[in-house]
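Hi R.,

Here's the chain you asked about this morning:
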Amino acid sequence: MAPLAIRACTATSAVGRGRDALAKALAEGRTGLRRNDFGDDARLDCWIGRVDGLETVELPASLQPWDSRNNRLAWLALAQDGLRAAIDDAVARHGAERVAVIVGTSTSSIGSTEAAYTALEDGEFAERFARPHVHTPHSLGEFVQQATGLRGPCITVATACSSSAKVFAQAARMIDAGLVDAALVGGVDTLCGSVLFGFNSLQLVSSEPCRPFDATRNGLSLGEAGGFALLERANDGDTGLQLRGYGESSDAHHMSSPHPEGLGARLAMRDALARAGIDAAEVGYLNLHGTATPANDSIEAAAVASLFPDALHASSTKGWTGHTLGAAGIVESTIALIALERGELPGTLNSDTPDTACGPQIRFAPQRADIRYSMNNSFGFGGNNCSLVFGRA
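And here is the predicted structure, written out as tokens:
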């Protein structure tokens, strides 16, 4: 594929607001996880990655019809790392109608819908919850378009935990087809009862901070996050970061479990490398999906070992942020870009006992190394897989 320039990129999570906060937490080995203190749902014994300050974020009057925890986090994330200036620059050069909005989310504003149903009045939503813009899967996409003034195609991708990785692939196809000249991509997911108790009902939530790829791992820690990136065609004179390849696949195996041999994961990674036009040995860092559930980690590790040499540095960063579901793709792509830009390759926080089922690619300790390419894996329920390759121009 033709490289796409990444003009701006940002992520806000439990470790802080923006790329610098994320890079600092990674370098210091400082987790954003804490014991569950999420309102009425705090009765669930687990650890969460919660973004502080969302309760006091105030949207402008014109955006009040979209007010929800999810959209407040989107508003917060849009204000970081010069993203607004990059959007304005793209609009000045291409026009608002030529810049797409492509965002991923797994639950959108369902937390607000839950609250509305718990406060029904005579079977109807109370006036304070009667906001039809919020109670739809497209709440996030519509909100971001309204908040930015962009007028190109507006798409919400909802493929569970691969959602905000797949937005990069969607943007690449739309730009290549000439439908748009640039795309604001990203994703936002926030904590709510459906998320916490839904995953707990599947017996996937740990009562301790998650330990990806550790021999004693016993489940995930849920988190919330939001982030965005602005993509456009690369120019000959570009010197910055680029999207170089993507790969997508579907296991078609099970509603919530990956293929036992990792066939879909391997296909996604192989296609991403092929589109980037590089060999697996050229990848310096791979951010793994690494949820810390027993089956997912061992299957992903085996898929990685089947494609990559022992020298690869691969790690899961969910010990910092928690599993941010539909936002995992954008947050962990940002981490892959930080590794590419700064040469700081994160380890796997909280994990210290290697699982013998995992290959030498899985690293618990951080490393410094100048790398040319990095990757990110995001795998979701239903076998939705997406792998991305990033490079320096």
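One quick note: Residues 328-342 form the longest helix (15 residues).

Cheers,
M.
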